[in-house]
Amino acid sequence: MIDKKQELTVNELETISKIWMEVNIEIHHFIKESYWKEYYESVKESLNDATIYLYKQDGRICAFLGMVDCYIAGIFVDKRFRKNGIGKELLTAVKKDYESLELSVYVKNVQAINFYLAQGFTCIKKQVDSETLEKEYSG
């Protein structure tokens, strides 16, 4: 079940913040773990300013997608629930609400690039993320 939220409860915020941290550390192994830990609190605060699509299974949050205007800030799926089409379901829900979408993906995150390409996104430009100094694609 997907639940679109403008305001998160304290428990929802705690849960998705934890998922955000775990997924970033695991998937973006090419970026120092300390980077994600350093930005944890500021990201947690910014989640309250985003539109969040929660994916719940049996009442439990398994994944989420964060939107800021028409920008997909990320799709984060708890590793125990991956490979079940949850990311695609979240993206399908967002596509119903937004006429156009933008996002950025690290070049080294090949799995995410392949996912977004399969969902109809195209790479418009390649740039360097000023925070991590990693190359990324925007589309």
Give an account of the 3D structure.
By secondary structure, this protein is an alpha+beta fold. Helices cover about 40% and strands about 25% of the residues. The protein is built from four helices and seven strands. It has helices at about 10-25, 35-45, 85-95, 110-120, and strands at about 1-5, 50-55, 60-70, 70-75, 105, 125-130, 135-139. Helix 1 (about 10-25) runs antiparallel to helix 2. The protein is globular. The model has no long low-confidence stretch (mean pLDDT about 95). One of its GO terms (molecular function) is acyltransferase activity, transferring groups other than amino-acyl groups. This is Putative acetyltransferase.
Describe what is shown at a glance.
This protein is α+β, with helices and mostly antiparallel strands. It has helices spanning 10-27, 33-47, 86-97, 110-118; strands spanning 2-5, 51-57, 60-68, 71-77, 104-106, 125-128, 135-138. The chain is globular.
CATH architecture: 3-Layer(aba) Sandwich
Strand content: 25-35%
Spatial order of strands in the largest sheet: 1-2-3-4
Low-confidence residue ranges: none
Number of strands: 7
Specify the helix fraction band.
25-40%
Distance between the termini: 27 Å
Contiguous helical run count: 4
- Within CATH, the superfamily carries the name Gcn5-related N-acetyltransferase (GNAT)
* Inertia-based shape: globular
How would a crystallographer describe the biggest sheet? 4 strands, antiparallel
Count structural domains: 1
N-to-C SSE string, H for helix and E for strand: EHHEEEHEHEE
User: Compute the gyration radius: what is it?
Assistant: 14 Å
The CATH class: Alpha Beta
What structural class do you assign from the helix and strand content? alpha+beta
- In CATH, the topology is named Aminopeptidase
Mean pLDDT score: 94
GO molecular function, one term: acyltransferase activity, transferring groups other than amino-acyl groups
Keywords: Acyltransferase, Transferase
Protein name: Putative acetyltransferase
Domain N-acetyltransferase: 8-139
